[in-house]
Amino acid sequence: MYRAVGVxxxxxxxxxxxxxEPDQTDRGVHVVQSLLINKSPEELxxxxxxxxxxxxxxxxxxxxxxxxxxxSHWVAKAPAIVGGEVQWDAEITADVxxxxxxxxxxxxxxxxxxxxxxxxxxxxxxxxxxxxxxxYDPSAGSVGRWAAKLFGEQPEQQIRDDLRAFKRIMxxxxxxxxxxxxxxxxxxxx
Length: 190
Description:
By secondary structure, this protein is of the alpha+beta class.
């Protein structure tokens, strides 16, 4: 069952994320990442389906606003060279309650991409296998090159980090961050 959803339970990672590599094909980049989360598929699906919650754990997103039942407007952080942010509209292409959400950008999007997230109950009351699949084409001019930076030089790492943040929100209620905390050691004056 784990192989079917892309989960590697034998890996060294304690949170059992899959060691996926991006598939760079003629049609762009294809990334698949999976993670076990100790919550039910119903809870995870309900949280993810509320797209306005996604910026809580997706570090590159500024906001997501639902336009209607199938469409949403997304704003992501971007380098100043492309205006500091990139926006696009997306539509849901598949919605299977408590199981799958799939989407794609609508025509005219600066960053054309598509993806899906699936939720499969793990055996032995071990939570839910969450699998994210993303395809995008970084060759679409300067915005396309920015998309490569948006999803990271290692796009699988960005998705893995976002899934781990999702796991922390769902299991402990928050994303732990060291952002804004001082670095280094404190030396007392003698």
